[in-house]
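Sharing a chain and its predicted structure for anyone who wants a worked example. Both blocks are below, sequence first, tokens second.
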Amino acid sequence: MEFPLTGLSNVNGSVVTDQACSLYDRKPATALLYVSVLGVAAVVGTLGNLVVITMVTLKYLRCRKSTGSDVGRAFIANLASSDLIVTSVINPLAIAGLSDQ
């Protein structure tokens, strides 16, 4: 049995690691599935995070009263910003095979 993305193979019930394993050394169908899933996740995640940041900003601009919920809005915007960096920078680098695993 072979684990396609991890470089592990099962030989007689024991797991053996393969250090020279790369996604692009695998079957084309596996690589295509991996690239497709990560590509869709990167696009959807980037667009979703942009929507969240836009809505939080618009809500802040409409209601400039100082309330306790400003901390919550800032927290949500901070989470969306950090996730935006992951989905727009790290995921495409992982697809291209340039990020460390």
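Comments welcome. The chain is about 60% helix and 10% strand.
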